[in-house]
Amino acid sequence: MTKSKIYYAHSSNEYNKWHLLKEHLNSVSNKAKLYLTDWEAGEEEALISGLLHDLGKYGDRFQARLQGKDSGLDHWSQGAWLALNKPYCSIAAALSIQGHHIGLQYLEANKLRNLNPDSLKLQHPLNLQLSESNPKKLLQRFAADNLQITPPAKTLLSKIEPRVDTMLDIRLLFSALVDADFLDTEAHFQGDINGKQYRKQGQPLDPEDALNILEKHLDAFPENKNKNVSVVRKKLRQNCADSAQKSQGLFTLTAPTGSGKTLAMLCFALAHAKVHNLRRVIVVTEVSQLLSS
């Protein structure tokens, strides 16, 4: 009986343990799904994204790269192209897979069509080469590793629609995939003779406790010399606290610089999470704003 070839996701750690590709794909898939618990369509696409994100690592050229014998390879586009087409038809998963090394790309039909391996073999936008040009060979090796994918009952996005909710859905899926991939890879390289060592998981959000800590922090702030500024800050904070009691939906906050918008916004988010028993508070800030600040 012929022994099956072993495929790896990453080279050895300091304990000379190599990271099995099938184990990495399964772990990333399950972790990404866990991050999106209670979001049915998100869970299904997380599984697809995790299983296909490194499909190109089944290519011989990528395995040679782990030995330092090759370079300049694209190991993600084959999986993204597969996710995009039947039977999966997952635009969100395709974008997440494509972007997990090069960054999330714009949702444009032409850019999605450019994921076609036949096009990439002729001209790659990043001047890379596919780790394997034959997608069937990759899928055969994927199946030989006892891996399989169930097509989703419902996808997050079945056609290209430039909408805000679509954008947020894709970013959330992308974030789940990237975090799962990074943490599993880190656990491999931090591992020891007993296997992977994951970093300690953060505590679940307790919005009531977090809100108490934040309010104590705010109460400890010294009064501003300009009494008008202090009045504006307190009023803004109270308005945010009042709005947090309302039904879930879209809220906007407009206030001048120096009025304490960031902390008032956090007060709103934690109070809103407490009222509606929410599990997460997600803060999104433009890079340009961070740089200018």
Fold and architecture overview:
The structure is a single chain. A hairpin with an 8-residue loop joins strand 1 (8-10) and strand 2 (19-20). With 293 residues, the chain is mainly α. The protein folds into 2 domains: 8-189, no CATH class; 207-292, no CATH class. Helix 4 packs antiparallel against helix 5 (91-102). It is elongated, with a radius of gyration of 23 Å. It has 13 helices and 4 strands. The strands form 2 sheets. The chain has a two-stranded antiparallel ribbon with strand order 1-2. The chain has a two-stranded parallel sheet with strand order 3-4.
| Beta-strand content | under 5%
Q: Which class do the helix and strand fractions yield?
A: mainly alpha
How many DSSP E strands? 4
Rg from Cα: 23 Å
